[in-house]
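tl;dr need the bound structure. longer version: we got a ligand (flavin-adenine dinucleotide) that a collaborator sent over and nobodys looked at where it sits. i said id run it. heres the input, straight from their email, havent touched it
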Amino acid sequence: MSFFVETLVVGGGLAGASAALGLARTGQSVALIDENGFASGASGSGAGLVSPMMSRKGRPVWKAREALDALGLPETGLLRPASSPEQAAYFEQSTDQSPDLGVWMNAEAAAKAFPYCRAPFGLVRVLRGCSVDLADLTKSWIHESASHGAFLGEHVGLVSWRSDDAGVRVLLSSGEEWNVGRVVLATGPGLIDHPETQDLNLHPIKGQRIRVKKPADWYDHMLPLSGSGFVLDEGKSLSIGATFEHEWTESGPTDEGRRELIELASHMVPEIAEMEVIEHTSGIRITVPGTRMPMIGPLPTHPHIWVFTGLGSKGILMSALLGMKIPQFFNDISLIPASCRVANRKSKA
Ligand SMILES: Cc1cc2nc3c(=O)[nH]c(=O)nc-3n(C[C@H](O)[C@H](O)[C@H](O)COP(=O)(O)OP(=O)(O)OC[C@H]3O[C@@H](n4cnc5c(N)ncnc54)[C@H](O)[C@@H]3O)c2cc1C
């Protein structure tokens, strides 16, 4: 086979964009395609939170510091109000153990320093992290990968592939057929019902978000707020997310979702209940049940076909961490963290 590119990355969301960038930066020949346009899936859903202390107990996210360093964005930090005295106790413990990531503040100190955020049980002033527009970040990685020589095919879909010992023959929606050395499927929900990947241990979770108009006399600048949901200051509006829906009949935004988001956000900023909703969107994120870790690596039956998915609600951190490492994983698959390896639903590989 003569190769057009060594690696074809399919899906221009955070996963595919980070993989393409990781490969292009190391001088490898790579093409990135997306059938709907870059950042048109979950990675186009609006402002996103980057938090190293996201869990219920405020424990550090897996490899949080390494992921933040890989991301390399300016970090404002954020606020994590406790929702109960029990959670406050966990947060205090967590900040004691990770003082580089967060500082505990009691309710009085928090109210004085951050009057826009209701925190009757105190809060963690998370010292690292930020908010960033998911689509802007994805597109900046794609742009950078092109500047390193990646070939981009926007509105080009992967229709089918056939792999053998030598590589992969792909059919694209443009009608072209390419010979490539390897394919990385970063197609998000597209993996769930594809015959070759439908048995992977993946689970879709619907998420909704709303955007509300900031009143003219509202605080100029709020730090990102992270509770059961998040509230992110976008200048003239606040972005509020996100629902976690394991089952749904309606794939788009719903009234119930809007009510739930307002309810979640009002715990942190009661005034949000009075603000005008100016946008309401939804998306699907993919998680790995059991581990809640990303999934990356070759399919057991097709060594030239890789998947990169399962970024869940930590898409920004996990793509920055793992996508950029994909060249190393190509060289030596034993470098893929055990908890991130490709596994089927029933038998874990
Ligand atoms: C409401 C909501 C809020 C979120 N908030 C945050 C947050 O605050 N912080 C955070 O870190 N993460 C957040 N996430 C999660 C994050 O958005 C996801 O983890 C991440 O975007 C997933 O990226 P992906 O590349 O795996 O998938 P996607 O972004 O869905 O990309 C998949 C791409 O594949 C393309 N595709 C599919 N099939 C084909 C094909 N056959 N050929 C070519 N292209 C194809 C699609 O068009 C799509 O562009 C949120 C998600 C949602 C839904």
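gonna send this back to them w/ a short note. Residues 134-147 form the longest helix (14 residues).
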